[in-house]
């Protein structure tokens, strides 16, 4: 099977692509590679790389593609607010273009990795049938992409939406602007965990390899199980309040719990049910917060990961690129 992965050089894409190749897939990797071109396997006969923008790429790239996993997006809320117009043009219009062209080119499956951030603030545990409440440009663009791309779904074009929990864990394109990753870095660099005020907010979490496996499971599932469906991706056990999560991270890596507050109080808070993906697809994560924290801690200690690499803070790297005149 030939799979197009957009955003292939990103935090999730650079983990997903090797996993696909290991399972025998031929991968077409499309990305603008803002964070470097060295994040994907080299000299591999099953990998074709295109340095392209989802808003402008030649539709012929989709020739003979069987499935699309559309990861390309300006990721996280701070990046989304940096230039909201660009966020809408990429995260909504760009992905809608990919889906539309895929359908016209005869692609059979399209997977849209979205985000649980579309739930925004909720008092109750939410499921895929709960009302959404996106609070940021990033979340609003995700939800609009979900709504309009699902309308393209029919008997010949299978569309599936995956609302991912907050992702964590090691990646070739490492990020320290994600909660668990940033906590571990804080301990390593300062001996303190940075916690976004006020710490009581709820968040669901999922490891980068686990969410990549969820995409593969949808790719390999019977179409009748996933056509037109939305799945939350994560596990009920990994719904954490941020302050308690910080304590877990400290205990896992064997460091005294010291913390410092940062930012303004976070108005996003949501607990998510992952019963559907568990029941329908048999999805069960292999990682938890503690295991993910330990692997990052060990990578920092060994020098495998540079905590001061400017590319690991997405919004700051985008600011640098914009200052240099790069068109995003």
Name of the CATH class = Alpha Beta
Q: What does the overall shape look like? A: globular
Major sheet, described briefly? 7 strands, parallel
Strand tally is 14
Read across the widest sheet, the strand sequence of neighbours is 3-2-1-4-5-7-11
Distance between the amino and carboxyl termini:
31 Å
Helicity, as a percent range:
25-40%
Give the SSE order as H and E letters.
Answer: EHEEEHHEEHEEHEEHHEEHEEHHH
- Under CATH, the topology can be stated as Rossmann fold
Mean pLDDT: 95
What count of helical segments does DSSP give? 11
- State the domain count: 1
As residue ranges, the low-confidence spans are: none
CATH superfamily: NAD(P)-binding Rossmann-like Domain
CATH architecture classification name: 3-Layer(aba) Sandwich
Beta-strand fraction estimate = 15-25%
The Cα radius of gyration reads: 19 Å
* Structural classification: alpha/beta
């Amino acid at each position: 099977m030939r799979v197009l992965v957009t955003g292939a050089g990103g935090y999730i894409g650079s983990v997903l692509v090797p996993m696909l190749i290991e399972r025998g897939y031929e991968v077409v990797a499309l990305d603008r590679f803002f964070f470097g071109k060295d994040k994907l396997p080299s000299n591999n006969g099953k990998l074709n790389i295109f340095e392209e923008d989802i808003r402008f790429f030649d539709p012929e790239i989709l020739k003979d593609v069987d499935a699309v996993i559309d990861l390309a997006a300006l990721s996280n809320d701070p990046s989304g607010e940096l230039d909201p117009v660009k966020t809408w043009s990429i995260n909504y219009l760009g992905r809608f273009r990919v889906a539309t062209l895929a359908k016209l080119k005869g692609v059979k499956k399209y997977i849209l990795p979205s985000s649980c951030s579309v739930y925004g603030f909720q008092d109750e545990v939410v499921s895929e049938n709960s009302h959404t409440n996106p609070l940021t440009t990033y979340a609003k663009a995700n939800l609009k992409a979900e709504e309009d791309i699902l309308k393209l779904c029919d008997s010949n074009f299978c569309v599936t939406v995956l609302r991912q929990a907050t992702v964590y864990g090691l990646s070739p394109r490492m990020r320290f602007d994600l909660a668990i990753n940033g906590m571990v870095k804080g301990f390593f660099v300062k001996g303190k965990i940075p916690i976004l005020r006020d710490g009581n907010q709820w968040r669901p979490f999922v490891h980068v390899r686990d969410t990549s496996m969820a995409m593969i499971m949808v790719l390999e599932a019977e179409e009748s199980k996933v056509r037109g469906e939305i799945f939350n991706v994560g596990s009920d056990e990994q719904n954490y309040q941020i302050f308690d999560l910080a304590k877990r991270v400290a205990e896992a890596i064997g460091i005294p719990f010291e913390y410092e507050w940062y930012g303004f109080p976070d108005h996003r808070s949501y607990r998510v049910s992952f019963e559907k993906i568990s029941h329908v697809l048999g999805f069960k994560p292999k990682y938890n917060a503690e295991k993910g924290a330990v692997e990052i801690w060990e990578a920092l200690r060994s020098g495998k990961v540079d905590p001061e690499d400017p590319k690991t803070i997405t919004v700051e790297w985008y600011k640098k690129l914009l200052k240099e005149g790069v068109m995003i």
